[in-house]
Amino acid sequence: KQEVTQIPAALSVPEGENLVLNCSFTDSAIYNLQWFRQDPGKGLTSLLLIQSSQREQTSGRLNASLDKSSGRSTLYIAASQPGDSATYLCAVPKNFGNEKLTFGTGTRLTIIP
Amino acid sequence: AAGVIQSPRHLIKEKRETATLKCYPIPRHDTVYWYQQGPGQDPQFLISFYEKMQSDKGSIPDRFSAQQFSDYHSELNMSSLELGDSALYFCASSSQRGANSPFFGPGTRLTVL
To answer: What is each CA distance from B85 to B18, B32, B37, B102, in whole angstroms?
Structure first.
């Protein structure tokens, strides 16, 4: 059974700093990995999707990396801003495509102005 | 751009009542997923439909049922509601059975009193 863990559970950093969020998964036979953002009480916004054949994806100040063999992914946020404050979740699908995503436990990020 | 629509956005019910949640996928999306997110929890997959047929099933209680209609919208029916059913219920949609990244709706917040 796939288990997805995110460390730390919560993180507070001053505005402007670069930071890294971690995601670990137990079954390396994944099709892809997604990073989502969730604001309190709100829906999920997909940030980046990395296919299993890729090592990283970039979107603006965000960079996600994937190391399938070690079962790890990182989300790097450059020059953090207060608007980045949210919970960040990684998720992997059960099989081909995106059916039955297994979500990580999430990291609650607070950017201090 | 059109997004996934969920209705209602908020719902308050008493124990043992029934509730129906609706999801309208993005146009031309043929796959719908339902997730349940309890307070402080990560989203848990409930069930999915592809071309109006159930395609996968997760931890959905027997008291819940769902279907996808000819216009691709989906409904989650919940009976004999329990206090523990209070959660944020997300619907997501994708095209080609998840070959593309799913888009999540804003969620329906169900409170059972």
So the answer is: 11, 21, 10, 24
**Cα distances (angstroms) measured from residue B104 to each of A38, A44, A46, A101:** 11, 6, 8, 12
**Contact across the interface for B43 and A106, Cβ inside 8 Å:** no
pLDDT score, position B59: 86
Within 10 angstroms of residue B57's Cβ, the number of other Cβ atoms is 12
A19-34 pLDDT tens trace: 999 999 998 888 889 9
DSSP strand E in chain A: where? Answer: 4-7, 10-14, 19-25, 32-38, 44-51, 56-59, 62-67, 72-77, 86-93, 101-103, 107-112
Indicate the residue of A43, A45, A99 with minimum beta-carbon distance to B56: A99
What does the block give as tokens for B51?
């071309």
Which residues in A lie closer than 8 A to residue B45 (C-beta atoms)?
100-102
Q: Looking at chain A, which residue has its C-alpha nearest residue B4?
A: A43
Inter-chain touch A44–B104, beta carbons under 8 Å: yes
B98 and A97 within 8 Å at the Cβ level: the answer is: yes
Is A99's pLDDT higher than 80?
no
For residue B111, the one-letter residue type is T
| Residue in the block written with tokens 């997923």 | B33
CA distance A52 to chain B (A): 13
Q: pLDDT for A68-79, tens place per residue?
A: 999 999 999 999
Chain B residues within an 8 Å CB radius of A43 = 90, 104-107
